[in-house]
From TrEMBL:
Transmembrane region(s): 496-520
Annotated protein name in UniProt: non-specific serine/threonine protein kinase
Reaction catalyzed: L-threonyl-[protein] + ATP = O-phospho-L-threonyl-[protein] + ADP + H(+); L-seryl-[protein] + ATP = O-phospho-L-seryl-[protein] + ADP + H(+)
Subcellular location: Cell membrane; Membrane
Recorded topology in the membrane: Single-pass membrane protein; Single-pass type I membrane protein
Chain intervals for the UniProt region annotation (Disordered): 854-893
Keyword Membrane: yes
InterPro entries referenced in this protein's UniProt entry, alphabetically: Kinase-like_dom_sf, Leu-rich_rpt, LRR_dom_sf, Prot_kinase_dom, Protein_kinase_ATP_BS, Ser-Thr/Tyr_kinase_cat_dom, Ser/Thr_kinase_AS
GO molecular function: ATP binding; protein serine/threonine kinase activity
EC top class named in words: transferase
Organism this protein belongs to: Oryza meyeriana var. granulata
Length: 893
């Protein structure tokens, strides 16, 4: 949300309190400042408090600790002062904790029996506290073996004392930054090499003493910087040449002796070696080197000779000034110059243009996109706090970043034509900065809602960059909407000017209205198109169960009984394409020629009035390529019928069990799974308000003519925004075998309940087994059988034989890992659906399963193919007995 002028945040809080909302994102508003009021603690439903890049001052209110539902707390890049409130240690659900780039002082609070502390945040994965003035010792009590921290950023502060040995307990840690704390002293803990997941390790510019730490076995390390300390080693450590992922080794101005091992230059991923100012001596042998190696800085050492070898000499940057070798050659050798021997410097990375001919001339407020189209891009700066590479001339990193970001936007149905990145550089705090431009598709300028969605995806970490980029944040620029001047003039009325311009960072744009909330208005699309399809609109009381109340909502057409009777040829057997406990499904053809599927409930159906109404309401508000579309409904002559788009290739369940005639090999199954995951992620992350499906299973995933997955059957779904919380107390409903046991036991419904069901579906896809049959549970069977020491994890006997040879199942181990993470007993240990989508997309690339341009179901039909069934409403009760259970759906009292 962009604020026009300074607002009293207290007034905003009072306005928002009266609404049902789940988040608060006012990021990138430099005009939004002042102190945060204590009344913020009354916003008990708040899940996301994101105030990145504003102008807030004063202390962080301790009342934020009362926001027990908080998941994201991002207050970075402001001007907050004072200490970190110990009360924040009460935020047990906190996932993302970012206070970086402020003016905070004091130490890291720990619990003491009367007040909480950061050591209580065992489920938090991100501690981002860098670029402040925090001081005192780093308390050892803060680190525990049960913490799930993956990013610990304490850089650019004033911490003193030694690094606690309890740091070695954080085995999940991937990024560690203690650099630029000049008062840190003492040795590096000897148990540091317990951190085998650590990828980026920064200790530079401190006053650490003792031996250089032993990094043996830390095979995930890609970036190591311990420069400018008092660490020493009489000889080069053996681990120098044993780190397979190492791209960057920075060990400047230490006291390391011995010869530089030849194998260091040949590490397959190595890009930069900065070893200046040590006691390295003897002969330097650069005969064999990696093609990735761009810079070797060995200035100010004791090297006496250099051997290049008989092969192709190393022609990139080699800096040897200040070594005895250079005195021997009278400094005439180019390697002895200050800049060393190098090829001409490459210009900073810039996204390539696809203009084949003379580019068009754009208007003054437009730029030329990479696809040679004049438009107004959304611009901002990306800050990566700990990238795992140092070669900024390597375009492959940035191209991958562009591709994955664009793919994320498109997967969430945003109108993005292209992404442009340019001018990456490392700033004074060792952050990698780069300019970002996002260009619109199909129009010259983004709409307000588009900017809202793009900003939100970046501010709440919905987009996950490739792991090598590390943690990031985004600062967006003002976006010049075409109607901005008109809106600005309206803001001079007596209404509180909550919105006049840009929504950056993800909050909803609320144009010229008194007090729209963020979540309720976020991501809503214009209903214009759906209004054109609707024949009539009347109020509908969703809580009513009376059959006399006619449900008519925007986005769905109301059909009469006679209309549906006609289009299905009097519900003829020839048009009967499926059945279940609710009744039958019929194929029909509208007068426009559109094929539809008509689900007709029968008397005594398992689907009651409330489920019927729920499905209409939810499908009327969601629009995504991986969610089945509702065309309309009938509530006439005592009939209940739902009319869907016709999806011709049946269900995922029918395909993997061989009933539909559609043969799904490994790559096709991956494409189906990623489509289903995107549909569910859309429901969780971009539907407004978010939706929990509650009945994710293979029979509720339909396959269209090109085998694209579409999530269906919303009769049991629940709006997360109904009470504004991330968790809802509700009667348990779902399908046995897929049902989240945590939800079943506690009756607390969260989006992680869908994640569990999706994990079961993942296992079903590779085993072709019913999740629950005759007392056998596929989750338990896979968990007991997994042996990660063996090929294919030892699951050969459980895998569906129709998948083919194991050699063709690239990425299966990673797939199984994801499935087992999704079915963890505790919801907090499961990934979000957005994270699951990102991981499956990575597996898809590993398997080379990108969708073929012209693939259709006919390409995968077996010789025994037949017309598939279409159980749009799920399984009939007889199909999944659940080990004697009377029905596939459970509703315990």
């Amino acid at each position: 949300m962009h604020i026009n002028g300074i607002l009293e945040f207290d007034k905003v809080c009072k306005l928002l309190k009266s609404f049902r909302f789940c988040c608060r994102d006012l990021s990138y508003n430099k005009k939004l400042g002042g102190t945060l009021p204590t009344t913020i603690g009354t916003l008990s439903k708040l899940q996301n408090l994101i105030l990145v890049g504003c102008s807030f001052t004063g202390e962080i209110p301790q009342e934020i600790g009362l926001l027990s539902n908080l998941i994201f707390l991002s207050l970075n890049s402001n001007k907050f002062t004072g200490s970190i409130p110990p009360s924040l240690g009460s935020l047990s659900k906190l996932y993302w904790f970012d206070l970086a780039d402020n003016q905070l002082t004091g130490g890291l609070p720990i619990s003491n029996g009367t007040s909480p502390g950061l050591d209580n945040l065992t489920n938090t994965k991100h501690f981002h506290f860098g670029i402040n003035q925090l001081s005192g010792s780093i308390p050892g009590q803060i680190f525990k073996s049960d913490m799930k921290l993956i990013h610990l950023l304490l850089d650019n502060n004033k911490f003193s004392g030694s690094i606690p040995s309890t740091l070695g307990l954080l085995k999940t840690l991937e990024v560690l930054r203690f650099d630029n704390n000049v008062q840190l002293t003492g040795p590096v803990p000897t148990n540091l090499n317990n951190l085998t997941s650590l990828a980026e390790f920064h200790l530079a510019n401190s006053n650490l003493t003792g031996p250089l730490p032993d990094l043996t076995g830390m095979n995930s390390l890609s970036f190591v910087d311990m420069s400018n300390n008092s660490l020493s080693a009489s000889d080069v450590p053996t681990w120098f040449t044993t780190l397979p992922s190492l791209t960057s080794l920075y060990l400047e101005n230490l006291r390391i002796g011995g010869e530089v091992p030849q194998g260091l230059f040949g590490l397959s991923s190595i890009q930069t070696l900065r070893l200046r100012g040590n006691h390295l001596n003897g002969t330097l042998n650069v005969a064999d080197f990696s093609s990735q190696l761009q810079l070797v800085d060995l200035r100010d050492n004791a090297i006496t000779a250099v051997t290049i070898g008989a092969g192709t000499p190393y022609k990139k940057t080699l800096m040897l000034a200040g070594n005895p070798f250079c005195n021997q050659v009278n400094n005439d050798d180019a390697r002895c110059k200050a800049t060393g021997q190098s090829n001409p410097a490459l210009p900073p990375y810039k996204t390539a243009s696809n203009c084949a001919a003379l580019p068009p001339t754009c208007l003054s407020n437009q730029l030329l996109s990479p696809n040679c189209i004049c438009s107004v891009p959304y611009r901002g700066t990306l800050f990566f706090r700990s990238p795992g590479f140092s070669d900024l001339g390597n375009s492959s990193y940035f191209i991958l970043l562009e591709q994955t970001m664009k793919a994320k936007f498109l997967s969430l149905s945003l109108p993005v034509d292209s992404i442009a990145i340019h001018d990456p550089f490392v700033d004074t705090t060792n952050n990698l900065e780069m300019s970002l431009e996002v260009y619109p598709s199909g129009k010259v300028q983004f709409g307000e809602q588009d900017i809202s969605d793009i900003g939100f995806i970046l501010s709440n970490q919905t987009y996950k960059p490739p792991r090598t980029f590390g943690p990031y944040y985004f600062i967006g620029q003002h976006y010049p909407f075409a109607n901005e001047l008109l809106q600005t003039s309206k803001s001079k009325t007596n209404h509180i000017p909550l919105i006049v311009g840009v929504s950056v960072g993800g909050a909803a744009v609320v144009a010229a209205l008194l007090a729209f909330t963020v979540c309720i208005t976020r991501r809503k699309r214009s209903p214009k198109q759906t209004e054109e399809r609707s024949q009539s609109y009347v109020s509908w009381d969703i809580k009513s169960t009376s059959t006399s109340t006619v449900p008519q909502v925007r986005g769905a057409r109301m059909f009469s009984f006679d209309e549906l009777k006609k289009i299905t040829n009097n519900f003829s057997e020839a048009n009967d394409i499926g059945n279940g406990g609710y009744g039958k499904v019929y194929r029909g053809t509208l007068p426009t020629g559109q094929l539809v599927a008509v689900k007709r409930s029968q008397q005594g159906s398992l689907q009651g009035n409330l489920e019927f109404r729920t499905e209409i309401e939810l499908l009327s508000r969601v629009h995504h390529k991986n969610v089945v579309s509702l065309v309309g409904f009938c509530f006439d002559q005592g009939e209940q019928m739902l009319v869907y788009e016709y999806v011709p290739n049946g269900t995922l369940k029918e395909s993997i069990t061989g009933k539909s005639g559609v043969r799904l090999d490994w790559k096709r199954r991956l494409r189906v799974v990623v489509g289903a995951a995107k549909g569910i992620a859309y429901l969780h992350e971009l539907a407004d308000p978010p939706i929990i499906h509650r009945d994710i299973k293979s029979s509720n995933v339909l396959l269209d003519e090109r085998l694209n997955a579409k999530v269906s059957d919303f009769g049991l779904s629940k709006l997360l925004g109904e009470d504004g919380r991330a968790q809802i107390t509700t009667q348990v409903k779902g399908t046995m075998g897929y049902l989240d046991p945590e939800y079943y036991m506690t009756q607390q419904l969260t989006d992680k309940s869908d994640v569990y069901s999706f994990g079961v579906l993942l296992l079903e896809v590779i085993t072709a087994r019913k999740p629950l049959e005759r007392g056998r549970y596929v989750v338990r069977e896979v968990k007991e059988a997994v042996d990660r020491r063996k090929d294919m994890y030892g699951l050969h006997e459980l895998l569906d034989p129709s998948l083919g040879a194991s050699s063709a199942l690239a990425g299966l181990e990673q797939y199984v890992d994801l499935a087992l993470r999704c079915v963890e007993e505790s919801g907090v240990d499961r990934p979000s659906m957005g994270e699951a989508v990102a991981e499956i997309e990575r597996i898809v690339k590993m398997a080379g399963a990108g969708a073929p341009a012209a693939e259709s179901a006919s390409d995968s039909m077996s010789y025994a193919s037949r017309t598939p069934r279409h159980p749009y409403g799920g399984d009939s009760p007889s199909e999944y007995s659940g080990g004697g259970l009377p029905s596939t759906r459970v509703e315990p009292k």
